[in-house]
Amino acid sequence: MKALIGADIIDGTGGPVLKDSAILIDGERIIDVGPRAAVTLPPNTEEINLTGLTLLPGLIDTHHHLAHKNYTLDSRWEIQEPASVHHLKTAKAIEESLAAGYTCIRDAGGLDAGFKIAVDEGLIKGPRLLTSIAIVSPTGGIGDRVAPSGHRNVFITDPMHPDGVANGPEAIRALVRELVRVGADVIKFATTGGASSRSGHGPKDIAFGPDEVKALVDEARSQEKFTMCHAVGGPGLRMCIEAGVGSVEHACYLAEDPDLAKMMADHNTFFTPTFEVYEFHSTISAPHIVERTKQLMQIHQESLHLAVSAGVKVASGTDAGGFVHGDNAREIELMVERGLSNMMAIQTATGWAAECVGQEKNFGTVKKGLYADFLVVDGDPLKDISVLRNKDLIKMVMKGGVAYIDNLLVGDPQAVGD
To answer: 48-107 pLDDT, tens per residue?
Structure first.
């Protein structure tokens, strides 16, 4: 057994900080947690002194694209470089995410299930991975990547990475089953265009019809899989919420349809704003993408406040991959800049995020019985949220009781056991 002693705990529930704590770990899981004086340590327990440091649950990114490198078509078609180089870069991105304090990432398209196996078997170090494999969309949707010449991608023929394009309820049901067969943990689909989609298929333009969306959500539910939907605004946003999707990704124009926020709260539908990707798109993307992004920035913030006021749970997701890896905590920082308290912003990447991905009984909070997944930092993120983004201040990243990142110096008071 081992015990983490003396840290100030932000437990991921939004509750008060636990000062001078003790966490007792047996194998992968927490078996006791509380004030230091209230936790009895069995003989021969290894003690790790974290006095003066802050401990949080390992952070969770509910919307990432670990296999994506940039937004160019040849990169998305995976013909920019040898496949071996592409996969090694993906493995590096996975390792960088763990080093940034993220112990779980839900990939929203592009990552095949083999990387999850590689992490589980210890071939690479990484977060707990939840995969969606491909983005399900109709012909012309965001998952249908076609060159300006009209040519489709005929280069990827990996049977473990099927094409996400499907039309009609029956074809969609078949695709959901195929995605589950190749290892999808969650079914990702799109009912609108987006800021970065092709010209003519914008954030409020519809993809799929109600019968198709209902078939997808019903089939995923029958396969006991969660669903996440790319929906920015307009009729497509309403469609996925009415169909009972698990989480709505982006929902920038939610504030234009305020009744949807109550519906989301009533259905326990999560809201993943992904501010970080729009910060990127507002600067160096193609002109039509920059313009779309600038148009939605203000109402996106209003949508966040509307959702929180209605009781919707917000989850932190970066939608990174096209522009950066390893800077996931910028999304938490942006939540604060958009008006959330530091504590609530942390909750979006811990307790609420774990609920969003259906893993609240395993991680996301610091509770007895859960996995010992922790981030330990030198500083107080309730006073300065940027602490979570500063890699020099990350002292430990623990996943399942194993310290994959340990920057506690030998001889430093924080590293001395009794």
So the answer is: 999 999 999 999 999 999 999 876 666 666 777 888 999 999 999 999 999 999 999 999
Nearest to 277 by CA among 337, 325, 347, 343: 325
Q: Retrieve residue 57's tokens.
A: 């649950």
Residues 334-347, mean pLDDT to the nearest whole number: 98
Q: Would you say residue 341 has pLDDT above 50?
A: yes
The two structure tokens encoding residue 295: 């148009």
CA 348, chain centre distance (Å):
10
**Beta strands at 374-377 and 54-57: parallel, antiparallel or unpaired:** antiparallel
Do 57 and 353 touch, CB atoms closer than 8 A? Answer: no
Burial of 40 (0-12, 13-18, 19+ CB in 10 A): exposed
Count of helices and strands (H, E) across the chain: 12, 17
d(CA 375, CA 398): 7
Specify the pLDDT at position 417: 40
- The closest of 132, 85, 79 to 110, measured between CA atoms, is 132
pLDDT of residue 21: 98
125's tokens: 């170090």
Mind listing the pLDDT tens digit for each residue in 260-281? 999 999 999 999 999 999 888 8
Q: Strands 46-49 and 2-5: what pairing?
A: parallel
- Residues 6 or more apart whose CB falls under 8 angstroms from that of 340 comprise 304, 308, 314, 348
d(CA 74, CA 203): 24
Buried b vs exposed e over 56-88: b needs ≥16 C-beta within 10 Å? bbbbbbbbbbbbbbebeeeebbbeeeeeeeebe
Q: Is the distance from CB of 137 to CB of 228 less than 8 angstroms?
A: no
Q: Are 304 and 339 in contact (CB under 8 A)?
A: yes
> In Å, how far from its chain's centre is CA 181?
22
